[in-house]
Write a structure and sequence with these properties.
328 residues; alpha+beta; 9-stranded antiparallel beta sheet; 5-stranded antiparallel beta sheet; 37% strand; elongated; disordered C terminus
Length: 328
């Protein structure tokens, strides 16, 4: 530890009473080895990306921690600017997840709340667990204490885990971030905004995966058919259509018909978030950038959010003309 950090104390410290919920949230964006960590006074943001075509962002609000302290880096300007209170570095997400599960984290039928019970007892065909699941955390009592600290720029991220009187300390090497910007989503020019239960989206993606597709097409329209997910693969083609029933689509805002295609394997990278989330907000801008924002219910009764961004595939020759013909 450098002398400045020893004198002034660490830039960041936080304590969580549940290692498990940190692990579950970060596991949702585990499609790349490295993650950019951005620490602010409001919480931690972990961002993972691949080839600038997919990004996964998990935001851990300070309310998830029993204690949370973040101070500005020494030498930061005094003006009120967002960057002044921001600490940014890169770590190995793979190593972090392995560290968090040193004492074991159960994942069988893992659910933090009985999501379906709040919707009139609807039960998914996939047999999801709930508070009574035999391997749920409420039965096993898998919690554990996790203490995070970051002393100063260039220093390692220190993780202290405590479980049943056993303490383990890990220091993770930090790196300069390789990227800074998010995939842009034009929030003031959205072409669609749809909110639905997350597990219905998961069921649809799972159904379409049976054809081993390379592409997934999302078509939304203000008139029937309202929302269609379709795919083509070597084993055939498939489509899932959603009606506009408010019990199915909680929010449906589509001013005009849109059709965009994405790489299926990228969308499937969000499957874990689809499984554990209670709701998903499907947003797309006029450039075709897709945002899947998942609301995850956590053990303390609050919520956390995971956001995925996807860049669309360019339309093949004649494909765009066909879409226009359908609108006439």
């Amino acid at each position: 530890m450098n002398s400045t950090a020893a004198t002034n104390g660490p830039l960041f410290t936080a304590v969580s009473s549940s290692v498990r919920q940190l692990f579950q949230l970060l596991k949702c964006i585990n499609f790349a080895q490295k993650a950019q960590v951005r620490i602010t006074r409001d919480g931690l943001r972990f961002m993972v990306e691949e080839s600038r075509v997919i990004q996964g962002i998990a935001f851990l609000e300070k309310t998830l921690f029993t204690s949370y302290t973040c101070t500005s880096p020494i030498g930061s300007p005094a003006e009120d600017d967002d960057d002044d209170d921001t600490i940014v570095f890169q770590i190995s997400l793979t190593a972090l997840l392995e560290t968090l599960q040193i004492f074991g984290v159960n994942e069988a039928k893992d659910r933090w709340a009985s999501r379906d019970s709040a919707y009139g007892g609807v039960t998914s065909s996939l047999g999801r667990g709930g508070p009574g699941a035999p391997f749920g955390s409420r039965v096993l009592g898998v919690t554990g204490m996790c203490r995070l600290s970051y002393a100063a720029k260039g220093e390692p991220l220190c993780i202290v885990l405590e479980e049943a009187g056993v303490t383990t300390t890990c220091e993770m090497v930090t790196y300069e971030p390789e990227y800074h910007e998010e995939i842009p989503l034009q929030r003031d020019a959205l072409a669609q905004k749809i909110i639905m239960r997350s597990h219905w989206l998961y069921d649809a993606i799972t159904e379409l995966s049976s054809t081993s597709p390379s592409r997934l097409t999302i078509a939304a329209s203000p008139s029937a058919p309202y929302l269609i997910l379709s795919s083509n693969g070597p084993l055939g083609s498939a489509a899932v259509e959603f009606s506009k029933d408010q019990q199915l689509l909680e929010t449906f805002h589509v001013p005009k018909r849109t059709v965009n295609t994405y790489k299926h394997s990228l969308i499937k990278a969000a499957s874990r978030a689809m499984q554990i989330a209670s709701k998903v907000s499907i947003r797309g801008d006029q450039q075709g950038v897709l945002s899947l924002q998942f609301m995850v219910e956590i053990e303390a009764g609050g919520v956390s959010f995971i956001d995925f961004r996807f860049v669309p595939l360019l339309p093949e020759d004649g494909e765009e003309d066909d879409d226009n013909d359908e609108d006439i």
